[in-house]
Design a protein that fits this description.
16 helices, globular
C-alpha cells in the first residue's frame, strides 16, 4: 500500500472527526450570539478559555499516548501497558481537579477581574462543567490510544456521536428550557460521560482479558520514568501554548464587550482551521511513530513532505473560503450588527493565520510521533517568552490590532523554528 494511501486512510477520518470538535464551540457561540444580552457570548468565551487551560493543559495525555502507543505498535509489543499507564494518570489528575476546583475557580476569576454580570454567567458555566473532568481526561487517553493503534475510525465515531448528543442537549436546554449559559454547560457534561462509556465498549476489542492488568509491568520504573519525562515536556509545552491562546481571549475583554465577542467568533473559526490541519497532523503522529518503531526511515522522511503538502493545502482552501464568504460565515454566529462589524475589521488577521499556522501544526504531529517532546517544549517556551510576550508590550497601543499582530508573529516564529529543528533532526 502506498504511503499516501496509508496517510489518507488515517487522515480522512481524523479530519472528519476534528471538524466535529469545533462544532461544539461553534454551536455554543451561535446559541449565545443570538441571545439578547451580548454578555452571555463573552461569558461562554471567557469560561471556555478557563477550561482550555484546565483540560487542554493535560493534552499530553492524548499526545504522549499516541506517540508511545504508535512506537510500541511498530515494534509489536507493549501497547496495552501504555494504555494502562495513561488511564491511571488521567484518573489521578482528574481527581485532583475536582478536589481543588474551588481554589482554581477563585484564582481564575480573581485574575480576570470581570464585571459582576459577566463573572456571574462565567462562574455558572464553570461550576457545572468542572464535573466533566474525569470523562474529559480519560477520553484524551482513549482517543490517543486508538490513534496509536492506527485506528482513526473509532475516534471519528465517538466524536460525532458525542457532539450530536452535546448539541441536541444544549439546544434543547437553551432554546426550550431557557437555561442560557447553564444549558450549554450541562450539554457538554452529559455528552462527555456518554462518550466515555462508548469508548470503554469499543476498547474491549483490543483486550482479550481486559481489564486484567500486569501491575509489575505497568509500574516498571524505567518505563514509568520515560513516560513521565515525555509527559512533563508535553505538559510544559502545552501550558505555554495555552497561556498564549488564553491570554488572547482574556486581553480581548480589556478592549470591550464588542471586541471580546468579535474575537470569540474569529477564534472559533481559527479553531476550525486548526482542527482540519490537526487531522493530518494526527495521521502523521500515528504513522511517524509506527515507522520510527519499525525503523523504516526512508518512508518516514517521505512522510514529512506528504504531511506538509496536505496541511498547507488545507490552509489555502480555508483562506479562499473565508475571503469569498467571510461575511456570510460571520452572520451565522451573530445577529448583532455591532459585533458583526467588529469581527469584519479583524478578519484579515484570520486570513493570515491560514498561511502561518499549518506548518507548526504539522510539525507538532511529526514530533509527537517521534516522541520528541523536549524539542517541542524548548520551541514553545522560547517563542512564548521571547516573541509573544514582548510583542504584546510593544504593540499594546494598537489595541486589538496589536493583539492580533502579536499572535501572528508568535505563529510565524514558531513555525520557522520548528521547521529548522526538524531539518536538523537526524532520525537515523
Amino acid at each position: 500500500m502506498s504511503l499516501n494511501r496509508d496517510f489518507l486512510r488515517l487522515a480522512i477520518p481524523n479530519v472528519l472527526s476534528n471538524l466535529a470538535v469545533p462544532a461544539l464551540s461553534l454551536t455554543d457561540t451561535a446559541l449565545m450570539g443570538h441571545m439578547p444580552d451580548p454578555v452571555m457570548l463573552g461569558a461562554v468565551a471567557i469560561s471556555g478559555q478557563i477550561f482550555t487551560c484546565l483540560y487542554w493543559s493535560f493534552g499530553f495525555l492524548r499526545m504522549g499516548t499516541t506517540g508511545l502507543t504508535a512506537q510500541a505498535h511498530g515494534r509489536g509489543d507493549g501497547e496495552d501497558l501504555v494504555f494502562y499507564r495513561a488511564i491511571l494518570t488521567a484518573l489521578s489528575l482528574s481527581l485532583l481537579l475536582l478536589i481543588f476546583q474551588y481554589p482554581l475557580a477563585k484564582v481564575a476569576f480573581d485574575l480576570l477581574d470581570l464585571d459582576i454580570e459577566l463573572s456571574a454567567y462565567a462562574k455558572t458555566y464553570f461550576d457545572i462543567r468542572i464535573f466533566a473532568a474525569p470523562a474529559t481526561l480519560m477520553l484524551y487517553v482513549f482517543h490517543g490510544w486508538f490513534l496509536g493503534m492506527q485506528n482513526s475510525w473509532f475516534p471519528l465515531v465517538l466524536t460525532y456521536l458525542g457532539n450530536f448528543i452535546n448539541i441536541v442537549i444544549s439546544v434543547y436546554l437553551v432554546r426550550y428550557k431557557n437555561m442560557d449559559v447553564a444549558g450549554v454547560a450541562w450539554g457538554t457534561l452529559c455528552a462527555q460521560y456518554i462518550n466515555l462509556f462508548l469508548s470503554i465498549v469499543l476498547a474491549k476489542k483490543y483486550f482479550k482479558s481486559w481489564p486484567k492488568m500486569n501491575w509489575q509491568e505497568i509500574f516498571k520504573w524505567s518505563e514509568i520514568k520515560a513516560f513521565l519525562s515525555l509527559n512533563r515536556d508535553l505538559f510544559i509545552r502545552t501550558g505555554f501554548l495555552l497561556a498564549v491562546v488564553s491570554s488572547f481571549t482574556f486581553l480581548s475583554e480589556r478592549f470591550g464587550t464588542l471586541t471580546l465577542g468579535a474575537n470569540a467568533i474569529l477564534l472559533s473559526l481559527a479553531a476550525c482551521l486548526a482542527y482540519v490541519v490537526d487531522g493530518y497532523a494526527f495521521a502523521a503522529e500515528s504513522l511517524c511513530g509506527k515507522l520510527y518503531g519499525k525503523q523504516d526511515l526512508s518512508r518516514l522522511k517521505a512522510l514529512y513532505k506528504l504531511s506538509f503538502t496536505w496541511g498547507l493545502g488545507s490552509g489555502l482552501v480555508f483562506l479562499l473560503i473565508l475571503y469569498f464568504m467571510g461575511e456570510s460565515i460571520l452572520s451565522i454566529f451573530t445577529s448583532q450588527e455591532l459585533i458583526m462589524n467588529e469581527a469584519k475589521r479583524y478578519l484579515p488577521w484570520l486570513l493570515l493565520a491560514c498561511i502561518l499556522n499549518p506548518v507548526a501544526f504539522v510539525i507538532d504531529g511529526i514530533f509527537i510521533g517521534l516522541a520528541k517532546a523536549k524539542e517541542m517544549r524548548k520551541i514553545m517556551t522560547r517563542c512564548s517568552l521571547l516573541i509573544y510576550l514582548p510583542s504584546i508590550y510593544l504593540f499594546w497601543s494598537l489595541d486589538n490590532h496589536g493583539l492580533w499582530l502579536s499572535m501572528s508573529l508568535f505563529m510565524l516564529m514558531r513555525s520557522a523554528y520548528m521547521a529548522y529543528e526538524l531539518k536538523q533532526f537526524k532520525c537515523d
